[in-house]
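[stage:ingest] chain + small molecule (fe (iii) ion)
[stage:ingest] validated
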Amino acid sequence: MQRDYAARRIEIEGIVQGVGFRPFVYQLANRHNLKGEVLNTSSGVSIHVEGITKEIDSFCRELEINGPPLARITDISDYPETVKNHDSFLIAGSRPDASRSVLISPDVSICDDCLKELFDPHDRRFSYPFINCTNCGPRYSIIDDIPYDRPNTSMKHFRMCGKCQAEYDDPENRRFHAQPNACQDCGPYLTLYDNNRKMIDGINPVEKTAWLLKQGYIVAIKGLGGFHLAADAENDKAVCTLRKRKLREEKPFAIMSFDIERIKKFAVIEPGEEAILSSYRRPIVLLQKKEPNQLSREVSPKNKYFGTMLPYTPLHYLLMQHDFTALVMTSGNRSEEPISIDNEDAFNRFSDIADFYLTHNRDIYLRSDDSIVKRTAGETRFIRRSRGYVPTPVFLNRNMQSVLACGAELKNTVCITRNNKAFLSQHIGDLENLSTLEFFELTIRHMKRILDVDPEIVACDLHPDYLSTKYALSQKNVKIVRVQHHHAHIAGCMAENMIDGPVIGLSFDGTGYGEDGKIWGGEILVVEKSHFTRAAHISYIPMPGSAAAIKEPWRMAVSYLYDVFGEDLQDLDIPVIKTTSEDKTRFIIDMISNKINSPETSSLGRLFDGISAIIGIRNHVCFEGQAAMELEMLSDENTEETYDYEWVSDDKVYKILTAPIIKGIVLDVHNGVHPSVISGKFHRTVIRLFTELCKIIRKDTDIQRVALSGGVFQNSILLSGMVKALEENKFNVYSHKLVPANDGGISLGQAVIAAAVSGNMHNS
Ligand code: ZN
Ligand code: ZN
Ligand code: FE
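[stage:predict] done
[stage:export] tokens:
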């Protein structure tokens, strides 16, 4: 035997199963003339190679840099081994415990190779809407249990034909062990139904669907993570009908368009946006509208953006190639209920929405809405993290005890941690109705199963009435940790940025239950991992009517005005007073002065709402955050001026007064200053005043780091303005890039706090 002949064992962890990693290793080993074997283990993939040392070295190098597109190596280690004289390289059977703790891939958009076959008339899968391979296709949405093998997916009902089986068994084939592998002879198929559940026979269902959409019909289309409701985005009447039937007045609809070129007809695409649009995760990206454009105004009324995505399944491509500029592809649900995944359920729920149904017989086990992102301050920011991203974990800076965190109430997600990984669920929705609660519970059961953990620590919000809190409190034999909402926001931001405390945390939010029982939301917290102190907040103001004040920003306007002008507010010559009857205003004043159903709030979200109403943008909202959003859209970003601001210090807590700001705004309205300038000045004011407070708190505490979190940071002007101003003042600024700043990211923060709190108790 040659002297430089050696053997080595390589252990790899990360997303390395179900993503074509073993065939890649097999081919790489053969290229380097190495013998040995590769197999799946409980922690990832184990490789034994033997051959010329130099070849082993380059094998190891390429292993790390040339892996298959979906693979993600988180840890790689190698050890010298004794030569066992293998006579070839082979893919060995998995160890029995393999994939107990292995990472499952998210659902992946169709890859270029499959796309080529889809449109190749000579390919045996030409036009087959369920084409996929080791590098693409459904994953998370079709898995019922681990290990990730066909019998544990919804593909178990389809027996592969001889040709598909041969591909599946061949390590040289790009469909080797592709669990959803199928073809027209053996796999799932499409069926088109009319509104009376009558099957429309004998024609190509995709072509017929395209024709129906062109005629202005609304079609419910079963996709990867659930149903979409589709309509031609150029057809005003179709889009309006969809709005009316879906009872969705003004919230923007997502759209899908065939390719980047077509999107450029109606939207502006920045380079960073093109990359994220085209990535295999295929989220909805908020793109600046081009004006004028040929899409219906009803797609995204009073909004600067189109929420746009590229096709991500073969079915989408087959449909979109029929020259639509864009299709509305909105989640198939009724207002805030979970998206529909089941054919029968869709027939029932959309009977008065959809004219036709394009369905198929591959079951979706776990629903997953489209993810939504927006580029702000040079980074991709999540508004909703779901399909294409889940269940990819957020990596933590250390191992911790397993925790189940139940999230907040709106935009709920849950989070389960295992070692140094936090697994956030897909978007579950607003936990306000029974069907969402059921989906919440199902998701928790499902995640425990596929992650193979049953955490003994359960974290939830402080709010006693959240259904997620009630669920947590009902769990038996677990340790419950209740976490303040804004503490969780900041801790989530710290966790994804892998930093421990202390930090100055700016939590700009709509609503969160405070330790004093009041509603917080304009907070500066000094946060250590397991505890926090409140350093500053917006001074409390009554929220007349409680939840009603969120839906009706004019109530907040009256509350802020009453705080400044008292009874004289009735004489103000400003839009909100002119458009509201004296009786209604009187009614609100009475509620405030008699403290009837008027909880106090320090929320920044409410301040945005109130100002939006004061300057005449919006008295009522159709969806959460609408008034604040429209205030942002309108803002003149060139304004350098600010309003006067002021705070008082009380027991070392700074209380920011809203009165000087409100006074300044009312004066501007009287002087005829344009609302866009007022909005710009207000944004500047918030940025400047919070930056100054951070400087004061830095002096008090010596903390240089600032973490930004909370739903109000979806406001791009505020986020980029805050980052810029703080960095100019030599702060280290941390913001969200992996999870949403809104309540969709809360569960991550709850989880790390609960683990830290439990760890502390453990030590003491
Ligand atoms: Zn593929
Ligand atoms: Zn087949
Ligand atoms: Fe929040």
